[in-house]
Amino acid sequence: PMAERQSLGPDARITAVSWTGGKDCNLALLEAWRNPQLHVTSLVVFRPPDAVFRAHPLQLAEAQAQCLGLPLVHVVIPSDAPSYKEAYVEGMRKLRAEHSIEVIATGDMDLVGTMQRNWIEECGEEAGISAYLPLWQAERGACLRRLLAEGFVVVFSCVKSPWFDGSWVGRRLDAATLAGMEAMAAAEPGDDGAKPLDLGGERGEYHTMVLGGPLYARPVPLEATSE
Predict the structure, then answer these.
(1) For residue 197, what are the CA distances in angstroms to 39, 83, 85, 98?
(2) Which string of DSSP letters, residue by residue, matches 100-162?
């Protein structure tokens, strides 16, 4: 059983949380779980047929789902699909038809690359599914502090230079690591032209995996994290 019960309103909409296993989707799950208008029934991973995610291994996501007591639904996007967007929309339609999903919650914080709109919102319009974006445009440091305040166990799984070195991999997010990251975010751009750290890692500076938190019935076993 989950560590915290959902209290649902009379018209709560059936919701899936878009899942990578990292900090942002975990915070989005917590927000959706505590929102009486949403009835969270599953986690969903959109992936290519033979996905190998180095930063967020699929076996970790499966282990997290077990500790959360929620099914992890795989939506496979064919590698040879003529239109990536069409394939994504079709995958979302299937979620609606087979799992009655009305809302997809995501931990997206900002537009990525050349995108004009949030991807889940854009595809959802065509698929007849609403997007719930509780972290959209959120202040990055506030999200990290919230993770700590709620008792999430967040570990760095993948980091990039020049911001981080290999010693950060496996390190836990705590007050000390957060202070180090805030110093990097406040730093002047270096001679190499690198931008200051985005505290949320929105430019891919780092990735995390979550091994426990307020909704986890038990900690995620560490063997689930080995590749």
Answers:
(1) 35, 33, 30, 41
(2) ---EEE----S--TT-SS-HHHHHHHHHT-EEE-TTTT--HHHHHHHHHHTT-EEEEEEE-TT
Q: Which of 109, 201, 125 is nearest to 163 (CA)?
A: 201
In what order do the strands lie in the sheet containing 13-18? 72-76, 38-47, 13-18, 103-105, 130-132
pLDDT confidence of 53, banded at 50, 70, 90?
low
CA 211 from chain centre, in angstroms, equals 13
Contacts with 103 (C-beta within 8 Å, 6 or more apart), sequence order: 13, 14, 15, 16, 38, 129, 130, 131, 132
Q: Is 92 helix (H, G, I), strand (E, B) or coil?
A: helix
- Overall pTM surpassing 0.85 (yes/no): yes
Q: Per-residue pLDDT tens for 113-167?
A: 777 899 999 999 999 999 999 999 999 999 999 999 999 999 999 999 989 999 9
